[in-house]
Amino acid sequence: MVERKSPEKKTEKCAIKGCTNEYERSVAKDLVEEAGMEVDEDQKKGYLCKEHYKEYKKRSKNERKIGTLGH
Ligand SMILES: [Zn+2]
Fold first, then answer.
1. Of 14, 27, 40, 54, which residue is most buried, by most CB within 10 angstroms?
2. Distance from the CA of 69 to the center of ligand 1, in angstroms?
């Protein structure tokens, strides 16, 4: 019956849909979506876990390269 919750200290989770990792970096949600990653609708900020932050950086880098890279 007793559920331990700490209302003040809340650990934010990664904002990516389906990801339950703790967040490592906060990135503007818009930028995360722009990178083509799916942010959970409940999230107001683009909290990213380590793995997703890595992916975000990779994707945003690639995005900028599009146009200069031909097929
Ligand atoms: Zn994640």
1. 14
2. 28
Query: How many domains is the chain partitioned into structurally?
Result: 1
Question: Using an 8 Å Cβ cutoff, are 65 and 37 in contact?
Answer: no
- Which residue did the predictor score with more confidence, 10 or 20? 20
Contact 26, 48 (CB under 8 A): yes
Which domain range does residue 36 map to?
25-64
- What secondary structure does DSSP assign to 12-71, as a single string? PBP-BTT--SBP-EEE-HHHHHHTT--B-TT-SSEEE-HHHHHHHHHHHHHHHHBTTB--
- The reported pTM is 0.70
For residue 55, the tally of other CB atoms under 10 A from its CB is: 17
* Cα(51) to centroid(ligand 1), Å: 6
| Position 67 pLDDT exceeds 80 | no
Is residue 35 domain-resident? Answer: yes
